[in-house]
Amino acid sequence: MTRYTKLTELDVEWVGKWARKVNDDKVLRVIGRFFDANFVIGIDEQDYIIQVRGGKIEMVSNEIHANMMGWQFALRAPASSWNKFIEPVPPPMFNDIWAMAHPLHGNLKIEGDTKIFWQNLRALTWMLSLMRQV
Amino acid sequence: MANHDPIVGRYVYVTYAGKEYRVYYEENGQGIPMVCLHTAGTDGREYRHQLCDPDITKNFRVIALDLPRHGKSIPHQDFYKEEEEYKLTSKFYSEFVMAFCDALDLHKPVIMGSSMGGNICLPIALNFENDVSALIAIEACDHSPGWWIDPLHHPHIHGGEVCATAVFGLMAPQSPEEYRWETWWYYAQGGPGVFKGDLHFYSHDHDFRDLCRKISGKVPIYLMTGEYDFACTPEMTEATGAKIRNSETIIMQEIGHFPMCENPEVFKKYLMPVLARIVDADRDRRPSSHSAPSGRVEYNFSSNREDSLSRKPSSRW
Description:
The complex is a heterodimer.
Chain A: H1 12-24, H2 28-31, E1 37-43, E2 46-53, E3 56-61, E4 73-77, H3 79-85, H4 97-101, E5 109-112, H5 114-119, H6 121-129
Parallel strand pairs in A: 1-4
Antiparallel strand pairs in A: 1-2, 2-3, 4-5
Chain B: E1 8-16, E2 19-28, E3 32-37, H1 48-51, H2 54-57, E4 60-65, H3 90-103, E5 110-114, H4 116-119, H5 121-127, E6 134-138, H6 159-168, H7 177-188, H8 194-205, E7 221-226, H9 234-241, E8 247-252, H10 259-262, H11 264-281, E9 301-303
Parallel strand pairs in B: 3-4, 3-5, 5-6, 6-7, 7-8
Antiparallel strand pairs in B: 1-2, 2-4, 8-9
Helix pairs in contact in B: 6-7
């Protein structure tokens, strides 16, 4: 039995558990106060659309919902990359979104309006790090 | 009784290319001068642990400067009229460091730098080999692309938060939270466009892929890289070291791009054997009580030493 959840076994339920961790987090209430965006977490071929308002996840969906009005940026990577990212002690080159996305490595793609990604990098990085607690 | 760090900070005036710069530096210790170069977009506070470590300062006069525009070193007085964005170059950086050493009247210092401070050790080795005694190039390689990017200086993006968070993942998860977030804080305090401007040197102007082999090997170079460095990976450092005569490559486990400040305890484990060898090789300045290092060292390194090194006079820019 592994110490952490394998994203290949994941479904929207796991993403929902992570969203509850995010919404319980007291630091995000401060650093994510102005984080309003819809973004995609892509695992292999599956997209999960995350709707964030004020640093809280308001909605998670495995398909685009008419009420979501689309998304601004996407973080897409193979399950093998995400699995390393969410390990309690992630290995080198997989411990950070920008580490995985850096042109030298290409283990994750940042797509869409990347300005929104950079604007919210602090809160987003904190938010994603909570995946290691799911 | 007040509890002070032993560090003392001062300002020195450095004239370079007709401009006068007021440069802040901190120092502690006595013996062989060792000038410490901070990483891009931040300042000499990164070396506060080494500046306070008596195991280091008993043999070295440790000096950490803030480059112009960094920390407490203000830009030159006309910076607000510049018609081009700030771009650090290899020429300015290497020559300014040597001008700083001249201003302090330092004789053949050791230069220890990290990241861009590590990369600049290569031009210093090529062009100032008669003016330094050893180089410790931390997180350094001959070419480190991918960081000179606009999001790091954009009016719609909070520069402090984005620069600090962009480098946060360069640190190892094993490094203490306290020190990782302290490093994040240093980055969040950088001036506008300074980090990006420094990365012009780091990712664009610095390209030693063909020049490494021109370094004579007169000055020993210690290349030390952490396994979590995704900007300058261990493989990139190893490939660089393989091309440089009289260099040694040391790969550090469970540490990242900011060894001196993200995990000073782990860094010390790797640094002390290097410093012991520098002291041992410095016959004129080593203390009389010094004995050569002995016993088993705790790291593996690949050596690129050659017994017969070609000597050439130092060429300046």
